[in-house]
Design a protein that fits this description.
Elements (H helix, E strand, L loop, with lengths): L3 E9 L4 H14 L3 E7 L8 E9 L12 E4 L2 H7 L8 E5 L14 E5 L1 H8 L6 H13 L3 H12 L4 H21 L17 E5 H12 L3 E4 L6 H11 L5 E4 L3 H13 L4 E5 L1 H17 L3 E7 L16 H5 L9 E4 L3 H18 L2 E7 H5 L1 E5 L64 H13 L4 H4 L3 E4 L6 E4 L3 H15 L5 E5 L1 E3 L3 H9 L3 E6 L5 H9 L6 E4 L8 H9 L8
Parallel strand pairs: 1-4, 4-5, 5-6, 8-9, 8-10, 10-11, 11-13, 12-13, 16-17, 16-19, 19-20
Antiparallel strand pairs: 1-3, 2-3, 7-14, 12-18, 15-17
The chain binds coenzyme A (COA).
Length: 581
């Protein structure tokens, strides 16, 4: 029988909820399963409601799912928040007796009380190990392979010392023993038995961005820490130094983008990462990057804004501020990833595009995607195409004059890299002539403005990374971007399983808007729906503004968590009629 299990571990931040979910995720991956995680926690270091959800399946999965099958409740708050979802057939493992709550009767729900706090405090004398008591209990009830847990626990806690590892292994055994001696299993759920491992690696969203940057050839990274983008810096700093690169924590976001532009001028591939408020600070320097035609990749890990608002929460609301970022006419490209694997490949694309077009290229991630973990197929690096900027080879004779901004047909002109004979030029924010000297007469101004924009004239034909999943006879189509795209895929699957015809499109480049593809897609259907995790319907607005007569129906959430597939499924179903042809 096919396996599709969703485990939700819920409790207080600081209780080790996230680690517990991570250990289960690792066990599932070692068992050769597909895994998608969803984590959400408050911005406090300790306290507040934290959740870690692990969905495992032997089929391809796109989303975190609608709800849970198994709830592991560490405290009364976790129970109170989740109890409305405790419907018959579901399972709850919870801290009782000795915890801070006693649940009501839930008809048809399999209830497994385990005194997690009591065992950790009284028996183990280690309150922090409560989560491992819970994990031991869960692994005994659902037959999670113990050797995998032991491996993961040892790997994670060894940096805290062997005593910490031993205490946690003791806690695992204490939880398992309690179940063996006191609990009678009433449900039939079991963890899948290990199958030969697929060729996969377990990667977190932000880690995938960093890996992509390294593969693309990034050798200079500068940023100012900001939640939820900081983990990219953590990953970059551990990798880039080993590759003879340079990482620099700047005093603010203005300095970090300025550092990157300087490194880019020097011929190095460079990246910075930030979140909404940090991008605002970068905006003046982005004008310089655009004017001086310097390649740079800027990762914007979107969070619940505006201002500090909900820095650890999911939101897709920086699309317009990124698209219209900076002053004047600033050509730019924005890519948005829908899952962890795309964070890797689209970061490489972002570098390739920045190098090819010599301009700032943005990569949009978000707070949820940044910490989502997936098991992704090991990339075959030898098959990945890496692009480098066109450079000036150097002076052949004394008469030759290097024209950094030569007005070519494509708008792309060779960059002079410092140290190359005769390649010096001024990378200036002033309007300039082909030789980079300041010039503000009308002819030059017009020529240079048009040259800078001409680079993007054929971008849609030149960057064709767009997924189109059309169904003959469909009258409704969903266009989804970012993390919402992967959740939409599951909604589409369910609607088709119900017998509906429905099409879908998932653009990877969200700016410039892929107008031709969208118009073609929309011309075959009656209704275009765009679900987005923002209030205004930002992509829907762009589509309406840029296309000829495509007027999407908006579906918006802004609560700080991603869509669940059911929301998109239910909303779309209202527009569908079965058997339409
Ligand atoms: N034994 C020993 N240590 C344990 C343990 C155990 N049994 N279980 C967990 N821990 C440790 C973890 O290793 C981790 O320590 P580390 O950071 O040194 O690795 C710590 O306890 C927290 O455990 P973890 O499972 O990672 O998280 P949690 O579920 O307890 O939730 C967070 C804590 C993640 C919510 C919180 O720490 C946090 O980071 N909040 C967000 C802060 C933020 O970004 N604010 C925004 C500012 S703008």
């Amino acid at each position: 029988m096919a396996t599709d299990i969703i485990m939700r571990i819920a409790g207080e931040g600081g209780e080790g909820v996230i680690s517990t979910g991570d250990f289960l995720m690792q066990a599932a991956t070692r068992a050769g399963m597909e895994v998608v995680t969803f984590k959400t926690f408050p911005s406090e270091i300790k306290g507040g409601y934290a959740l870690s959800q692990v969905r495992i399946s032997d089929n391809k999965i796109y989303s975190q799912g609608d709800t849970f099958d198994i709830l592991v409740a560490f405290n009364g708050e976790a129970y109170a928040i989740n109890k409305k979802e405790l419907t018959p057939g579901k399972i709850m493992v919870y801290d009782f007796p000795g915890g801070d709550f006693e649940p009501q009767d839930h008809n048809g729900v399999h209830m497994y009380p385990v005194p997690m706090t009591k065992i950790a405090k009284m028996e183990l004398k280690a309150p922090i190990a409560k989560n491992m008591v819970a994990l031991g209990a869960v692994s005994e009830i659902f037959k999670v392979p113990m050797d995998s847990l032991i491996q993961s626990i040892t790997d994670k806690f060894i940096r805290k010392g062997q005593a910490v590892v031993d205490k946690n292994l003791e806690a695992i055994e204490a939880g398992a023993r309690y179940v063996r001696e006191n609990i009678k299993k009433t449900d039939t759920r079991v963890f899948p038995s290990p199958t030969p491992q697929k060729d996969v690696i377990i990667v977190e969203g932000s880690e995938a961005v960093a890996l992509g940057a390294m593969v693309a050839g990034c050798r200079f990274f500068s940023c100012y820490p900001i939640t939820p983008a900081t983990s990219i810096a953590n990953y970059m700093s551990s990798m880039i130094l080993k590759a003879n690169g340079f990482v620099y924590q700047a005093e603010d976001e203005i300095a970090s983008i300025a550092n990157c532009l300087g490194a880019s001028f020097a011929g190095v591939k460079t990246m910075t990462s930030t979140s909404g408020p940090g991008l605002d600070l970068m905006s003046e320097l982005l004008g310089l990057g655009s004017m001086a035609e310097l390649p740079v990749v800027i990762v914007n890990v979107q969070r619940g804004g505006p201002s500090t608002r909900m820095p650890t929460k999911h939101y897709q609301a920086d699309l317009l501020s990124t698209a219209y970022n900076s002053h004047g006419d600033t050509p730019k490209i924005i890519l948005a990833a829908s899952n962890v694997e795309e964070n890797f490949y689209l970061t490489i694309d972002a570098f390739n595009l920045a190098e090819r077009y010599q301009m700032p290229v943005f990569m949009l991630s978000d707070a949820s995607l940044a910490i989502r973990t997936e098991a992704i197929p090991v990339p075959d690096i030898s098959k990945i195409k890496i692009e480098n900027r066109v450079t000036y080879a150097g002076k052949k004779d004394e008469q030759e004059k290097f024209l950094r901004y030569v007005n070519t047909k494509s708008g792309i002109s060779p960059m002079g890299i410092p140290g190359t004979p005769g390649a010096s030029y001024a990378a200036t924010g002033l309007e300039h002539a082909e030789d980079s000297g300041p010039r503000t007469n009308q002819e030059t101004r017009n020529m240079m403005t048009e040259k800078r924009w001409r680079k993007l004239e054929n971008i849609e034909a030149e960057y064709t990374n767009i997924e189109v999943d059309e169904q003959q006879g469909a009258e409704v189509g969903i266009i989804a971007w970012g993390l919402t795209a992967s959740i939409t895929k599951e909604a589409i699957q369910r609607l088709r399983n119900k017998g509906y015809k429905v099409s879908a499109m998932y653009p990877k480049m969200v700016y410039p808007v892929p107008v031709n593809s969208i118009e073609k897609f929309a011309s075959k259907i009656k209704t275009v729906i765009i679900p987005e995790a923002n209030y205004q319907g930002q992509f829907a607005q762009l589509v309406k503004a840029k296309t000829n007569n495509v007027n999407p129906v908006k579906l918006n959430i802004y609560r700080g968590e991603p869509f669940i597939p059911k929301e998109i499924e239910d909303f779309t179903e209202k527009y569908l009629t079965k058997g339409s042809s």
